[in-house]
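So, can you check?
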Amino acid sequence: MSKRLYLIGSNHCDHDFKWLLEQIQEIQPDCITLEQKIDTAGGIRRQFEHPLDQILKRHQETSGLFGEFAAGIYHARQNNIPVFCIDEYQPFYVALLADMNQGDNYAILGGKKHLQLNYHTLEETKFENATRRNKFMGIGIDYFFQVNKYNKIVHIGGREHYDRDRCVPLQDIVIANSIQIIDAVNKTRVNHPTNSRQAKQYAKEHIQQPTTI
């Protein structure tokens, strides 16, 4: 089956919730991944706990923080599909195996139960920071394509993670048959040319695969 990836990018508080939700509903993904760390996603947890009609009303009225993630979670809850938080995290297998759209799992959001990777002491540029995190998220998305056999994945994150001037972009790391970038600010959808051979070579040279899966 063809592996299709849809990268939704926002400025985290500048987006149209209704438009984003319509895009996700049109795609009908097999799973949704978020640019979120499990133990710092307390705000995300509320998107799972609050009634769906309350989430819809709140985010249709204002473009607040977490709104782009709320659109993905809203669709996932409506359609009973998995949601994963795949930003840098240790142990990484927790992020890859914990479907947050399950009551027993989303209870850990914001719970400080696991060890986060701590890079606060590193001297790194914003470019290096975004690139390092893209490598984590790329591994996660590749894992879901290859191991979980999901064929359509929607990933929701910041626009800077798809910008070559600001990082090695996620679309150049993930191996997929088709990649589309959905700009939640400008309301555009652009197909990204894929090169599986180039992506595989990049992964081989730059990405250390997790050994705990």
Notes: The first strand starts at residue 4 and ends at 10. Residues 129 and 167 are 8 Å apart (CA to CA). Residues 4-206 form one domain. The radius of gyration is 16 Å.
